[in-house]
Structure formats: C-alpha cells, structure tokens
Specification:
The protein has about 190 residues and is an alpha/beta fold. It folds into 2 domains: about 10-85; about 90-185, Nucleotidyltransferase, domain 5 (2-Layer Sandwich), CATH 3.30.420. About 60% of the residues lie in helices and about 20% in strands. The protein is built from 4 helices and 5 strands, in the order αβββαβαβα. The chain has helices at about 10-85, 125-140, 155-170, 180-185; strands at about 90-95, 105-110, 110-120, 140-150, 170-180. A hairpin with a 2-residue loop joins strand 2 (about 105-110) and strand 3. Helix 2 (about 125-140) packs across helix 3 (about 155-170). The protein is rod-shaped.
Amino acid sequence: MRRKDIPLDFTSLLDIALVLLFFFIMASSFDINKAKAEIAQEKAEVAQAEQAALEKEKEYNAKIDMAMELSADNGADLYAIIEKYQSNKSIKLILNVEDGAHWVLTVKDGNTIVKELTQNDSIDTAIHDIIEQARKNTNGTVLCDFIYDGNKPGSFSVYSQISEVLRSTENIYWAETDISTTEAGNE
C-alpha cells in the first residue's frame, strides 16, 4: 500500500498569524498614542504650574520691592521727623488746669503757638485737625509731646480725653510728661 501524500496548505494559518500580529501592533500603537497624549497633558499641566509659580514669584518680588521702597521712604521720613523732634520742632500739647472746671490746652508746632483750646472747645476735632495739618507737613507720621500737671484738680478728666484722641489717631507717636512728677523729683 502506498501512502498518499497529503498536500498541506498553511496559507490560512499564515493569514491568521498575520492578522493576530497586525492586531497586536495596532493595539500597542493605540497604547503608545494614549501614553503620548497623557505625557503631553502632564507636560502642559507642569508648564501651567510653572507659569503660575512664576506669576506668584513675580507678584511676591513686586510686593517685596514695594515694601523696600516704602521702608526706604519711611526711613527717610522717620529720620526727618526725629531731626524735627530733636530740634524742638515737634507738636506740643501743653495742658494748664487752672481749677477743676477751667483749663487751657496750648498747641505748639515748634515754638509757634498754633491754637489754644479751652473747656468750651471740641478737643477731638481740634486735635485731629492739628495733627492732620502736621501730617501733611511730615508725609504721614507725627511726633507729639503731651505735657500736663497730674497733681492739679480736674487734670485727669482732660488728660483722659486727650490721651483717648491720641490713641485713636493713626501714625502718631507721642510722649507724655507729667510735670508734677518731675517737680517732685527736683525738690
């Protein structure tokens, strides 16, 4: 008996293998494109975050520069104010209580009397107006001497009113001098 040769045709098997190979190549190509898109999106987000960080840094640097300029300006103003104070040209509030009900508040700018207030005047508005005028001359900050005699009757109520006005005023530095304690120390 003779055997017959069976013709084998592998072309269909080759077609299936090529289709599978093509499918895997396409699938990996889609994954690569997806990965590239994700990387591009991440790069865009990083670039956006870097841009935001640069904007914040610029804003921060601008604030620092502005603060340094203001500091330099205020330093020069403060130096001028201190020179004015040392040369006895600051604002002086001198309280003279004659008795418990009568008093006079003399306001001086240096050695010049600016105003004299009595118990009939409005202390709040008068002192605020004087300080605002002095503030215009000193670019914002005012030094003030408040001089009073704490032993005189009625001086505490007037002292309380004036010190409350001074406390509520911005950009003012004041020194209080109670001449009753300095006079007592000299005796």
